[in-house]
Structure formats: C-alpha cells, structure tokens
Design goal:
Layout: H1 11-21, H2 24-31, H3 41-51, H4 55-63, H5 67-76, H6 84-93, H7 97-107, H8 114-122, H9 127-143, H10 150-160, H11 166-182, H12 187-197, H13 214-227
Helix pairs in contact: 3-5, 4-5, 5-7, 8-9, 9-11, 10-11, 11-12, 11-13
C-alpha cells in the first residue's frame, strides 16, 4: 500500500498492510492484556499517518471488526462526523481494551456529543460502558470540573470501587487519583479512601513508573508539581 495514492486506498489495502506488519510475539504480549492484534503501535500509527483523514474509509475499516483495522479507523476518522447514536453503538461493540480506550480518548473526547454520552454512559448498567463514562468524567475532573459534584463522586467511589469489575474499577480509581491531584481541598479525603479500600495497592509496577495505587499516585504527581 506504500505506493497507493491516499485517495485510492481501500479496506483491502489497509488490511493487507496490517497483515504484513503482524508479529506473533507482539500478539502474544497484547493478548495477555485482552488486545487481539499483533501490530506494533508505532507502525500502525505510520499506516494511519500515510492515509491521513479519510472518514468514509474509517467507517469501512470499523465495520470489518478487525482490531488493528479499528485502531487505524480511529486515527483516520473525523471525530465530529460521528453521531451520538453511532458513537454509542461503537462503544458498546468495542470490547477490546485498546479499541475502547482509543475510541474514548481520540474520538469521543473530540465529539460535540461528549457531554451527552458521558452522562448516559456513566449511569449504564454495563460496567465496560460505564467505565467510559467514568473516563470522560475524570477528564472533566482534571480540566473543567464546573458542574461536577466531586464530593458525590467520592461517595460513589468509596461505596462501589472495591467490588467493581476490573475495567470499571480502574476507571473509578483513575477518577479518585485525579480528584486528589487536581483538587487540594479534597486531597486528604481522596487519599483516605484509597488507603481504606487498598485497590491496586499491590499492583506490580515497573521501576521508574508510578504505582496506580491512588495514594501513591497522588503523592507522586503532587511532588512533581511542587518541584516544577
């Protein structure tokens, strides 16, 4: 596909290039995290960069259901062109963690429907869908908290995070950490909740990486901010 003009790229072209980039070792690592593809993400981004923005192609790539193709689709789509209903359908179909995360971060956050979807997903009974609502809420907590009841969020986290399904628990924990990081008046309470619940306290963390355990995470980021 490298010699194919951008305007002439087809789904078959993209799938063929992704297949050529497939690496069994990368697939084995990704599958341990629930991501069923074997393409190096730097190279996958290179494929998307060569295509530039092609929303119709993105729609077609998404419909293949192929994980690597969907990741490319996310990178070459026009986020504002998806309707709220389309994004809702896509999110519910995006069960692969990397696809789910990229869809929320690279598409939904840039959509004019983001707030509508945030509130709908936050209350959804499906924990994977709800995790997207929590991720979008965390973005609000960090960047535009006006209108967000942070104390109620902490109440909900304190009551539900300990026993939440894994993907939802991670999203709630990230929200807890961001409340503690960005809102000093609630930092002690956020740290206290993390210490009592002990969620991700023993999560294995590589050297030079910050632990996802909220009290440790909060303390480290605040330390960096203080020293900056």
């Amino acid at each position: 596909m490298a010699s194919t003009a951008v305007a002439q790229a087809t789904v078959s072209d993209v799938l063929a290039e992704l297949e050529a980039l497939e690496d069994p070792k990368i697939r084995a690592v990704n599958e341990r995290h629930g991501d069923n593809h074997g393409v190096n993400l730097t190279r996958l981004r290179g494929v998307a960069k060569s295509l530039k923005t092609q929303h119709e192609l993105a729609e077609q790539l998404w419909e293949t259901g192929d994980t690597a193709a969907r990741l490319v689709a996310i990178l070459v789509c026009r986020p504002r062109s998806w309707s709220a209903a389309e994004l809702d359908t896509m999110l519910r179909d995006a069960r692969v963690p990397k696809v789910h995360g990229w869809l929320v971060s690279y598409v939904v956050k840039k959509s004019p429907h983001v707030e509508e979807l945030r509130t709908a997903w936050f209350a959804d009974p499906d924990p994977v869908v709800a995790s997207a609502g929590w991720a979008l809420t965390t973005d609000r907590v960090a960047k535009s908290p006006e209108g967000i009841d942070l104390s109620r969020l902490l109440d909900r986290i304190e009551a539900d995070m300990k026993d939440a399904p894994e993907r939802l628990q991670w999203a709630m924990n990230e929200c807890l950490a961001n409340i503690g990081i960005h809102h000093p008046e609630l930092r002690a309470r956020a740290v206290g909740i993390g210490e009592r619940l002990e969620v991700l306290k023993d999560y294995p963390t590589p050297p030079n990486c910050t632990s996802p355990f909220a009290p440790t995470w909060i303390a480290e980021i605040v330390r960096r901010q203080t020293q900056a």
